[in-house]
Fold:
Amino acid sequence: MKSILLTCALALFALAYAPQSAAVIEAVEFENPKLEARYRSLIDDLRCLVCQNQNLAGSDAPLAKDLREITANMLKSGASDTEIKTFMRERYGDFVLYEPPFNAATAFLWLGPFALLLAVLVGLIINIRRRQNEELLKPTHAMNDGERVKVRNLLHNSPELDSGHQPGQNRQHIDN
Amino acid sequence: MRSASKMKLKYLIPLIGFLAMAVLLGIGLTLDPKAVPSTMIGKTAPAFDLPLLDDRKQNFAPKDLTGKRWILNVWASWCVSCRYEHPILNELAASGAVPIVGLNYKDTDPEAIQWLAERGNPYVATPADNKGSAGIEWGVIAVPETFIIDETGTVIYKHSGPITRELVAKEMWPLITAPANPAIQSP
Structure:
């Protein structure tokens, strides 16, 4: 039983790490290895519009094949990455890019997480400060003499905490 | 007493947060994730020059219809949802309100010709885009797609997917019958 489970787990790992693009993509010949590297990174960054959760590199839709061909031909004729991305954006919109550009519509997407983090941090600091103030102002400790004696005895018996008689507010209270 | 009501309000915050989130996600569920905002609207109709399906010696180019308001319908004989919208295109053509051009996308001629013979031909011209290159210029993602182009050659409307009678009545008809924008027409 254990070995079956282990095999299944291993198979899942193998699937998860298998290069998905290798299966469908046609070979494109480039004389220049730099061009080929740019081709690979471009088709990784561009979305297939037919199967929308795949990039051009991973899709076997006919439109994805056409767009890969256009990408390769534009690269060979000397187009820059920006020119190719502009070509795609003019036809299919920002959606064709896996990394959305920063503009009014995507500002919330880009800045939202940071704004949320900032809000949480500010809230946390305010909350901690308020609690500290409340703790200082709490009258309950001063009233309960029995507990105060207990605390003093505990502190006194603990060699690490009782580091000499430093004059402090709490200590003065205890000594009263 | 004040602090007690304050405490109660404090406990309501997570509930309010949850409800806000639920409403937001609920709205998200009603949206179509496949709907991609079109980049073509407001742009000049992309040019192409393609031979006609029924007469390879003749060509059609969008500039041929400059000065007219017209519809470009992208279709293919292999496209299933094109079958649903075809009767509506026939009705629209019969009304005589607007010329419809049928861009035959990534199709083979015999099948496309037979398809039109069986179902009726609503098109004033059927340019054959066998390789889909004109489709890429028009940003076609999946057939059928329908565009309305105004007198100046500007794309004013795009619909992805089959058109319905309701869509024609509500969205397309007002654009088809609207008078030409004089500000654009006389430069």
